[in-house]
From TrEMBL:
TM regions (residue ranges): 27-49, 56-77, 89-114, 158-177, 183-205, 245-263, 283-304, 316-337, 343-365, 411-429
Gene3D superfamilies from the UniProt entry: MFS general substrate transporter like domains
One cellular component term from this protein's GO annotations in UniProt: plasma membrane
Protein name: MFS transporter
Major facilitator superfamily (MFS) profile domain span: 23-433
Bilayer topology: Multi-pass membrane protein
Entry-linked InterPro entries: MFS, MFS_DHA3_Transporter, MFS_dom, MFS_trans_sf, Sugar_transporter_CS
The UniProt record lists the keyword Ion transport: no
Signal peptide: none
MF terms in GO: transmembrane transporter activity
Record organism: Microbispora hainanensis
Main location, first listed in the record: membrane
Amino acid sequence: MDEPVADEPGGSLAGTPRPGMREYGRYAAIEFLTWLPTGLMLAPMVLLMSARGLDIAEVGMVGAAYSVTIVVLELPTGGLADVLGRRPVLAASAVVSVAGLVMMALAHSVWPFLVASVLKGVARALSSGPAQAWYVDSLHARYGPAADLKPGLAAGNVAGAAALAVGTLAGGLLPLAVRRDPLAAPVWAGAGAALVLLVAVLVLMREPVRARRGPGRAAARLAEVVRDVPVTIVAGIRLGLADRVLGRLLLLAAGAGVMLNGIEMLTPGRLGALTGEAETGGAAYAFVTFAGFAANALGSSLAPPVARLLRGSVRAAASATVVTAAAVAALAASTALRGAAGIVATAAIYVLLFTALAVASLLRSELLHQRVAADRRATVMSVDSLQLQFGGTLSSLCLVPLSGVAGVGPVWALTAVVVLASALLYVRLPVGPAPRHPQ
């Protein structure tokens, strides 16, 4: 086994050719495999439930079960990786993901779909963070705390986005090539990809030696993590109430969750109606979603120049939020179109929507980080994530069932109003660090 460069006499990070290549190559591979199952099942998921007899309210309930599971487990599972190790937690996520996807592929009524959704939520919560923590641990152990983390973190982000894009395309096109139970084929493929992830985690993720904890100490630490969950949530809420600016920034995440869930849950059915068949609707949704992922990357790169052009992150984020609302309204109006015109319009609107959303999201994150001190950043990030899931849950339980009564267009119009109203949270929003918060 190679010795860490940082420990060699006279060694230095600067003298090491391309330090961290092995680690971040493995990290990128694991990130790709972590997100590939999600990409594969994304296009056919709603269409599969509809084809097997679930109405739109039941589809919304299944989506809500996923979001609620993540809300409940997001914080305690984050501590598991510190207690049990990165590799076992991510391996457990892969096993649960396989179980959830197999259950989903076999489900023919609402209750099995609910169980599958809960299992997928557990897998998602378990996979949130261990791979990145393992990469940082490994690089620090091999090259020391001064090691440059950026190349590997960037490679991981690119790999995850690529997995979602490739997986969504493959998941949308695969039903066209399968005759028997075509909509379930991408879900079975996702289960297979999760199995590959399990093998990759066991083979590639060799954890650096850390201070060993005895069973009693590990159990005590786990109990401490579980006890800290309500404390963390309450602390985040208190912080948001004490700092009105921070509270407004966090509330924006809930509005984004409402919008994203409403778009993701209702677009597949809309495209299925346009093409006349669930399988072709899934393929159309795959291409539309692929365009959205590409637009998201574009928007992230445009955020800095947009902020400079509009003379500030607050103005730029507010403007991007208004454009996002306009795009959702255009999506609502596009429901009047039929056939190929409706599909092309949806794809074009997705590009505008996700470009603007990426700009707003990146700049909101910057404002959030500026407002929070380092010792409270993890708490606020956890609450921010919970806000996004809360918005998704609200959408699943209220807006998605409403579409079965009022139609998709009116629900998207209502969603556009929610997004536009959220832009008002930027009005007269101060920038910079907050005054000292009360303890």
